[in-house]
Write a structure and sequence with these properties.
With 120 residues, this protein is mainly alpha-helical. 57% of the residues lie in helices and 3% in strands. The termini are far apart.
Length: 120
């Protein structure tokens, strides 16, 4: 009976469309353009993390507010937590909108990370 071995599969490697021909040459050899795919995947994880952080902070602030029992210090702490959550979400969205405006007005692709050379 063969023993099954567990292989470590990195989370981002589960998306084969992210590691296109530009990132990996023939024979599955990584190229310098692989940094493009790495950067794209890091941004995908970062935006997901921002969304999750917003959700968790909003829930924590809601629980603080409910469990404060009318205590002014408790409600103020809950209000600060909820305000901070929304400020982080607004800041994240504002930064993305600013980058898109810069891209529209200047024509520069600031939201794309490309390393020249390699296969197109």
């Amino acid at each position: 009976m063969k023993k099954k071995t567990k292989r470590f599969v990195p989370f981002l490697a589960l998306y084969p469309q992210s590691w296109s021909n530009r990132c990996v040459s023939s024979g599955d050899v990584a190229t310098i353009q692989g940094f493009e795919c790495l950067f794209r995947n890091v941004l995908r994880v970062a935006t997901t993390f921002c969304g999750l952080a917003f959700g968790v902070m909003l829930i924590v602030g809601g629980f603080k507010f409910i469990l404060s029992g009318g205590d002014p210090k408790g409600t103020q702490s809950a209000q600060k937590t909820i305000t901070t959550a929304f400020a982080g979400l607004v800041l994240t969205l504002a930064l993305w909108i600013i980058l898109r405006f810069v891209e529209q007005f200047t024509g520069l692709k600031v939201t794309e990370f490309n390393i020249p050379g390699g296969t197109p």
